[in-house]
Amino acid sequence: DIFMTGCSFDEDGDPVAPCEYSQAQYDDFQWERVRNDAGTRSPPDLPHGSYLMVNSSQHAPGQRAHVVFQSLSENDTHCLQFSYFLYSRDGHSPGALGVYVRVNGGPLGSAVWNMSGSHGRQWHQAELAVSTFWPNEYQVLFEAVISTDRRGYMGLDDILLFSYPCAKAPHFSRLGDVEVNAGQNATFQCMAAGRASEAEQFLLQRQGGLMVPAASVKHISHRRFLATFQLPEVGRGEQDLYRCVSQAPRGAGVSNFAELIVKEPPTPIAPPQLLRAGSTYLIIQLNTNSIIGDGPIVRKEIEYRMSRGPWAEVHAVSMQTYKLWHLDPDTEYEISVLLTRPGEGGTGKPGPALVSRTKCAEPMKAPKGLAFSEIQSRQLTLQWEPLGYNVTRCHTYTVSLCYRYTVGSSHNQTFRECVKMERGTNRYTIKNLLPYRNIHVRLILANPEGRKEGKEVIFQTDEDVPGGISAESLTFTPLEDMIFLKWEEPLEPNGLITQYEISYQSIESSDPAVNVPGPRRTVSKLRNETYHVFSNLHPGTTYLFSVRARTGKGFGQTALTEITTNISAPSFDYGDMPSPLGESESTITVLLRPAQGRGAPISVYQVIVEEDRARRMKREPGGQDCFPVPLTFDAALARGAVHYFGAELPASSLLEATPFTVGDNQTYRGYWNPPLEPKKAYLIYFQATSHLKGETRLNCIRIARKAACKESKRPLEVSQHSEEMGLILGVCAGGLVVLIILLGIFNKYLIRGGPTFKSGFRHFPAVIDSKMEGKGLKKIKKYLID
């Protein structure tokens, strides 16, 4: 047969049957691996072949040797088969061979199969049907124990794992957990499939090793039977893992481990609570939230008796409170609670007893004449008529003063309290009240028999200064020179709000022109006005606002908040577009004037060059869109944009008006300022940017326009030492002459009545300075050719 894995001990490293086993290190000696072939000198009592062997004569009685087979974690039914050899020439027992099954590295427990005595000079086979599957794993341990006779040999061979059911050992179905109450009998039922011999012995094995024989074995069919095990009157000490084991000389079946769960019947920790007592009844709360033992609780009962009586009654209860009827007045009773969980014997012992007494006769009436003697904003002094015995009808009585009033800003919560008066008292001061609130007060006369409640009387406390306005209620919207502020009424108005007072003052500004701290200003608002717009403020300035409310008693606490106005865009000191300071075919010199920061200092300046195309909408000075996204000359070429950043200048470099040449072929903070194309017209913009606390404002203005060469009305400024510039002027002049001739021919052609057409092709010759080399020259050529 083909097996999945195993040990044949024939040859080390057998690729067909890899063998994984180990010798235990904690035992008394080791199994010996022998090879007894024909022609070898070996004892005649030993069989031929390779196997593990123990010579009993070489060891002391009782000594043990263990060999452990590899860990197994199978997904389906399987069978572990092994061969054993027990022989002594004179018929004495060489020892005992036992097999153990350890699950998930747990305790070894008791042997699931064992064999002793002398069984002839031959090999015998046995099987193990272990019903332990993945994700659990198990190990099989073989143990040899030396007998007192110390004669003969014990052998072990061919430990093989097959993927089909065992033929000599039954397979157990899954064993389920068993739950019982303490003191009851526990029953395990093990269903097995296979052939059971008459010598088959069924046992219930505890994880610790204890074995319990089966109470009965019932054959369901010729290949299916049911073994029943009884554990009498189990307690918490018997709670453990158990499994079913079938033992026979030809093999053993082992089930999975199942847990015996022993539950303690529940008992309340605390006695029931008395909710109300009358002359003939007691109302109690079971108070069963805390228990000793296990749940769930399926039934609750009350057991009560007279403290000095011989009888007791038990009532089933379905709610947390219960009323005991028909009791004797002014009599002491002991009341306990019984709890029951599922299962037989699930009723626990009675819990601690509540000892309570019924009441006297009911009072005649409630106290009368409740009135105030003094009213303040936070306390109220009350008085009422004295009480006599004709009203209380019992010497043991109490007078309680109960009051309530609403709390919270929306008055949706109620504070309640009852105060018991001292004996003979008919005056009381309620303290720590809220101002300007309706206080609902009533008097209650109670004795052990009952109670009488007086009519509720309403009193109102006096006004007080209001509480503070919540800082969280202050909401605002800052603009550049205005702030919209909104607030809410105080959580504790403590009266009628008559006025709001708002004060504000500048305390910090990034604009050096703003004086801080500034003058303090105050605004008053009516009680129904909870917002205000503050104007004429400075941009980028932090203001401290304080808001407080007022009642007839005065002003309350002040709520403070700091609000910073937004910064404004910088402003330029330019009138109309200024004239350039100088101009050549490829450059233009402009005057850069520092901008004025509004709420934040200037962070950086940029010079933007934009091609002035006829089909593009013109930008008007001061009213055009600005350039928030920096764009280098290279990026403009790649995107086909009509503008690029020719320079970026730090604010510290422009403290006064400074000339700047556009097209000087220099680099300013990473932005290249390439020469301008003479045949193209350009618009020059100057942009200033301010940053403050994550906020950015920018402004830009057109400061120059450079006309194309064909539109130029004045001679270009040419350096006397530049041969290249002369070449540019020559080409430009030649281009103008050719253009004039073409226009004349075209005009003459039109006069003669020639056909009219429109050309879709435009070409502007690019004039390149010979000093521009390498990569820069190529980029300029590409950008200048339209």
Automatic annotation (TrEMBL):
Domain Ig-like: 170-255
Reaction(s) catalysed by this chain's protein: O-phospho-L-tyrosyl-[protein] + H2O = L-tyrosyl-[protein] + phosphate
Membrane topology: Single-pass type I membrane protein
A GO term from the CC aspect: anchoring junction
Gene3D superfamilies registered for this protein in UniProt: 2.60.120.200, Immunoglobulins (2.60.40.10)
Residue ranges occupied by any MAM domain in the UniProt entry: 5-168
GO MF term list: protein tyrosine phosphatase activity
Superkingdom of origin organism: Eukaryota
Record's subcellular location: Cell junction; Cell membrane
Biological process, per Gene Ontology: cell adhesion; cell differentiation
Domain Fibronectin type-III: start-end pairs: 268-363, 366-464, 465-571
Enzyme class (EC, first level): hydrolase
Claim: tRNA-binding is one of the keywords in the record: no
Main location: other
Its job: Tyrosine-protein phosphatase which dephosphorylates CTNNB1. Regulates CTNNB1 function both in cell adhesion and signaling. May function in cell proliferation and migration and play a role in the maintenance of epithelial integrity. May play a role in megakaryocytopoiesis.
Name this polypeptide is given: Receptor-type tyrosine-protein phosphatase U
